[in-house]
Structure formats: structure tokens, C-alpha cells
Amino acid sequence: TDYVGTAMWHNANYDLKVIVYTLWMEDYLDHAGMLQGIDIMTRSFHDTKLLNYCATNSVQRVPHDLKSNTHEFAGNYAVDVKDIKQQPLDKLLEYNLVDCLSTFWLFKKRFPQMRADQQETAYDLFIDSVKVLLQMELVGLPMNPMEVDRLYTDVSAQATALEHKIGGSPQGLQTLTLLKNAAVEAHNKSVKKDITLQNSGRAQKLEFSATNKNHIRTLVYDVLNLPVLDRTDSGMPSVKMKHLEKIMQTLDGSDPRYTMLTDIVELSAMGTLRNTFIPAFAKGTLKADGRKYLHGNYKIGGTVSGRLSASEPNLTNLPSGSAWGKAVKSCVQAPKGWVFVGADFASLEDRIKALLTRDPNMIKLYTEGFDGHALRMYHYWPDEFKGVAETPETINALKETHDELRSLSKAVTFALGYDGTPHTLMNNSGFSYKEAHGIYDNYAKLYSVSKQWSEDKKQEAAKNGYVDMAFGLRLRTPLLNKTILNTRNTPYVATKEAKTLNNAASGQSYGLLTNRSMNATMQRVWNSQYRLDILPVAMIHDANYFLVRANTDAVKFLNDVLCEEMAWQELSEIQHETVHLSAELELFYPSWATPIPCENNASEESIYEKFAEFRHGHTTQSTASG
User: Phi and psi dihedrals of 341, rounded to 5?
Assistant: First the structure.
């Protein structure tokens, strides 16, 4: 409390979270004590992990832990400190001293490098994020424990039903026969005395499991006789969900094999929910307000683009967009007296790519009002639209007449937007060689300016050994710096490095605008009368989420401030007269699954009226349905 100098940490968020909770908070919901501790502990500090990231961030993913980066100074000084009571005090204190000296040594090494590479803007952004993430992790994401229990019950029941459906199908029974025969053959190869299926007790006891990868592999490739598009590192045909979905794209929806793959993929998604996310939800911290809170660990510098990653649980990877997305979101509910709210950027990555590349066919989506998917579909398959004029009215009308083809175009755009090739389209979407190459060529014509921009970035990286991304964050490319690109002899690892570079530099790094908007918003909140009424709870990709006291004045304050900060566009490379960044606040009641849009600059009266109207309709609907 009395220290007036600059503190130094390595991975400040971990230590500061423990210190603030232990020394300042009376209980889990002591937000006043929390803020007092956060204010004191973040007055002036450095974080050598963030310094190391800014000074060394590379496509090759260098480690940022303290011991790896100070080995030349301190050697291998690791001590098992999972339970410090198990260590003698003198040994523990010596370990602590070496840790502190190593941190200071790393600061002296990396701080000049960070400044020499002009990384101050990015570093300052990350330091500001430490304070916000500290409060965010201490507050946590609120879950209704009863909804979590209901989700587990529903998922388990449906998963069991689906397992029986797959296993009891003719294909599942045929698979079981093959597995039993294979078990007998394996036995007979390993022993002198042969047995038959009828007298093999082990084979007879064998049961088909729709969650066993080897059983599913036999079903998909031996029984259904589907093509192998991807393999595991050991060379086995892959049964990963994303790879099975690729196979599905090669089949007609009326094909029985398509239905079987749909069931297998859905069961896999349920397994991820049941085995990973729901247990994490159930382990949340139960607090006096009746909610269980998820206290995830956000990691600054967890990706080469600068975007946040998270763990325990991975809040940036909640299955909110899957078939079970709404059920998952139904678990996230504010406690009594609060409302859960959030805002995400309007198509941030697409807008950023348009602004960075200045590609006219990307820009006109925002200046002329074209539907992007319809426009791209129109160009990918020109023979389908002969005689159709390229105007916003005619192109946008295709949404109604060519919905299926428009949906198909989304996968094409995603693949080619991330340096995909005609081979990618053949694998992912099942196009013929001729059609895949035709679509690829048409994409290249449509977005020739942006493709040239990407190529220039790669050449810049090959020449300089790095590129600068959002807020000046540097991404180093050591292999590209020693490679001649686009030749038959270009190493695969260098090509892969170029692809990673393109993805990060062309849009992903501008996810840092989410950090900046959250930092700026919370700075204004902390300096206002609402510092205890507006609490940050999550940052997920391009969205910010909060708990707000259920008062219209607090909601209005956040709505005005947050939307203003998310419209911030002062980086020179993304400024534009007509293409602007924007966001709209949503109030979620009674859960994250049910959003209530809130217009920018809405008055307190309109916020109240819209919320009351929605709440009344939801309550009536719930009563009517029992």
C-alpha cells in the first residue's frame, strides 16, 4: 500500500489475482475491496512476460515462461512449489530470490529490445489489459447451477439415445461383426491354437461404442465405404469432427450415409459438451448470490496475432454457435439485481480486411449495400447468373432465390480467405477438379487487390524478417527471411509460416481493438459513479461482456460509453470516410440465449420500455408453455 516505486512481475495476472483476493476481498462478492486492491497493485508495474512477448513474438512460437528465458542467467533452478509447505523455508526463500533476480535480469534484457523494435504502443495496451483482465477473472462469468444440471441431463439423455441409434442400426451391427472378427484374427495371430468367433468369449463380449474412435473408423471407412480425406499423424484415417464434416460436404443430403455422419458428428459434439464444458461449469465457484462463477485464465500473448487465449476453462471457445449453443447460453444468467449484457463488433475481421487492403470489391459491401455472400456467389459461379446485372438490388435478391448456393459460398470464402487452394476446395466442399479451379480463379479476379496486398505482406516479411500488425505489434518471420517464396523449392515450413503470417496480419491481430475498447470503457467506468455497478466478466473474440446493476441509468452509461469506444478508429491504416467500425449493446434476459437489442444512444426510457416489453412477452410465453 505504501510502496511508491514500480513493481515488476512475470505473468502479473496470476500473482495479482491471488494477492488482491487474499489481502483485500472479504468474500467472493466484495467488489469494493477488489477494486481497492486492483487500484493499489496496478499503480505502476512492468510484466516481463509481456515484454518478452513484444520483443520476441514470432510465427515460430517461442516460449514466454520465465525459466526458459532466463536459463542462461540462472540455469535450471526449478523447485516443486505446488505445495510450498512441503519445501524447507531456506530452500523456498532461495528459490524466491532466484525467481526475483531472474525477472529483473529478463527486464534488463528485453526492455531495450522492446523499445528498439518500437513496441511501446502494443506493450502499453497489454499492460492496460492486465488491470481489466484482473477484475474480469476475479468477478467471473455467472452460471445458473440448475440450468447446468438440466443441460447435463438433456445432453446425457440425447447422447445415450443417439449411441443406441447408431449402434443398433444395420451399419452399426455390421461394424460390430467386423470388430469381432478382427478380434478373433488378432488372437489367432498371437497364439498357436486358433479359435472361432463362436468359441471366443472375448469377442462375444465385445460391444459397439459410438464414442470409440476405432469403432467409428471401421464404421465410416469400412462399412459406409466413405473416402479418406484426412489422416492422423500416424497415418490412420481421421475421424475428427471437422474431417467428418468435410466428407459430409461431398454427399447429397438424401444419402443415408449423410444421415449417419450427421448423427456421429452430433454425438461427438455432445461428448465435448459432456466431458469438457459441463464439468467445468459444474466446478464453478458457488457464491452467496446463488450463481456459480467461471473464473477462467486469460492469456495475453497466447496467440501470435495478439488476440487473447484462455484456459481452465477456455472461455473463448464456449460452444455457443453449435446445435447446443442456445442450451449452453441458457446456463449464463445474471444474479438477482443484475443484468448480463454484451456487445460485439459488426463483422470486425471482414471490415478490417477491407480497410487494410482497400480492395474495392470488399469496400463496396459497406459503401453500396451489397450482401457479401450473394455478391461472392455471383462471382464464383458466373454461368448461373448470366444476364443478371451487378447492382445491390439484383444481387441482394439472390438471397431468396439461391439460398443453398449462397450458403455453399460461405465455406469457399472462408477457405480461400485463409490462403486456401483449389485442392482445399476439393477436400472441404467436394468440388470437382474443374469446378474448384474455376471458383479459385474467380475468387482471385474478384479480390485481386487484396490478394496482391497479402502477397506484398509476405514479400515484406521475407525481406525484413517481420511485419507490423495492429498497434504496431511485430510478428517475426525467421524462415521467410531466409527463403525465396513461390518457387517449387520453397520449403513447406516456410509456406506454412507465410500462411500464418497472412491470417494474423490481415485481420486477426485487430482483435486487439476488443482489448482497447474494453480498456478504455473500464477506465471511464472506474472514474465514474458506476465503478461498482458495471463489472467486466468476459472478452470472447470480438465481443465484450459485463454484469450491470439492473438500473437504467447504469445500463445507459455503459451503452453510451462502450459503443463509442468500439467505434474508435484512430489507427491510420483503418481510417475511412464511409466504412466505420460499430457495435450494438444487447441485454440478455433471462439468460445469454435471449438477447434484447439496445440501440446506440438510447434513452433511459426507451431502454426500460424495451426491456419491460421483452420481459413481459417472455414471462407470458413461459407461463403459457408451463
Answer: -135, 160
